[in-house]
From TrEMBL:
One GO molecular-function entry: DNA binding
Record CDD domains: Cyt_C5_DNA_methylase (cd00315), HTH_XRE (cd00093)
UniProt keyword annotations, A-Z: Methyltransferase, Restriction system, S-adenosyl-L-methionine, Transferase
Annotated protein name in UniProt: Cytosine-specific methyltransferase
Swiss-Prot/TrEMBL catalytic activity: a 2'-deoxycytidine in DNA + S-adenosyl-L-methionine = a 5-methyl-2'-deoxycytidine in DNA + S-adenosyl-L-homocysteine + H(+)
Record InterPro entries: C5-Methyltransferase, C5_DNA_meth_AS, C5_MeTfrase, C5_meth_CS, Cro/C1-type_HTH, Lambda_DNA-bd_dom_sf, SAM-dependent_MTases_sf
Top-level EC class as recorded in UniProt: transferase
Source organism of the structure: Anaerostipes butyraticus
Keyword Ribosomal protein carried by entry: no
Lineage of the organism: Bacteria, Bacillati, Bacillota, Clostridia, Lachnospirales
Active site: 156
Alphabetical list of PANTHER family matching this protein: CYTOSINE-SPECIFIC METHYLTRANSFERASE, DNA (CYTOSINE-5)-METHYLTRANSFERASE 1
Domain called HTH cro/C1-type: residue spans: 7-64
Amino acid sequence: MSICYDRLWKLLIDKKMNKTELKEASGISFNVLARLGKNEPVSFETIEKICFTLNCNIEDVIEIKRNTDNESAKSKYTTIELFAGAGGLALGIEKAGFETLGLVEFDKDAADSLKINRPNWRVINDDIANISCLDLEEYFGLKKGELDLLSGGAPCQAFSYAGKRLGLEDARGTLFYHYATFLQKLQPKMFLFENVRGLLTHDKGRTYTTITNIFEQAGYSIQKKVLNAWDYGVPQKRERLITIGIRKDLLDCVTFAFPKEHDYKPVLRDVLLDCPEGPGVPYGESKRKIFELVPPGGYWRDIDPKIAKEYMKSCWDMEGGRTGILRRMSLDEPSLTVLTSPSQKQTERCHPLEARPFTVRENARCQTFPDDWQFCGNVHSQYKQVGNAVPVNLAYDIAIEIHRSLEAIK
């Protein structure tokens, strides 16, 4: 059995109403609207609000579909994820219909977060160097070429010989080397490699050239694109370099297209006003009082210059706009990139309505984690896990396109 809201979208068209207008008129949150868009269950209270707003009956907006035998029997595509963190990428991939066979994560708190949220996942809390050297086919119970998707985003330190041999040996001693080793040993049908945009220009482009050469030598055709999470249902400006690989023997039947941008771009108003409470770190008293002077959407230029200069100290004489200093967010804009610490002087993100940093839960909302996703460890570890994550909605949109690509394999 599955839920479908196609009747609701048809009713909106008939009433010449868009999704944003429905959200505002009915008082539902952006997260709930996103769940509706993905045909996921929502509370009966939500359905009642929508029906009251549209002056209709429940059967006019929701339909229960019975899965066919073929749909029920169809096996899910399989995935293994490296450098899994707290699960943003893995969760998005799972929601797109993949079965997670294993996740490798070195940080204990992040691994515990994965385990507590998905007890059925095989979470490997170990140094990836201890895993990549194994017989991976035996370790994961797979034949070479059987895995559908390898995913993850290895931190890419400078390669000692980048731009010289342009092969796997160039990456030895780096974490990327182990990602490439998994790729060569398991030969998945496709891979998803995500990283920061700056990787494109690191070492004048030689680092990424080395990476793409290694991918091609492993037998893959690659596509790359920088995606901004704000374009994909995430209330946050966050650019990521997405590299997709298709095994060359599958190119006759498999093609991949990056996801289309969404019509609606969410802002902080969509996720902060009804956010559950969560752990956080407050500002000190003096800093809190200064932030109370900064208007929503403002920064240091919007307060008394004497107060700003005293706060900024040596930063006052630096060149550039320094717009991250004493920066207070506005409800009508997306979050800036969620960071791993609640307060960094040159990249501050003060809450729009209160003089404090965002809580862990508010940052998790900005990363589109569901409210029931738990983070283990102390508060600083939780901030780090959330800040390092791939936004769930961005991961989902990419994974949906990968899923469609794999469907072409007979």
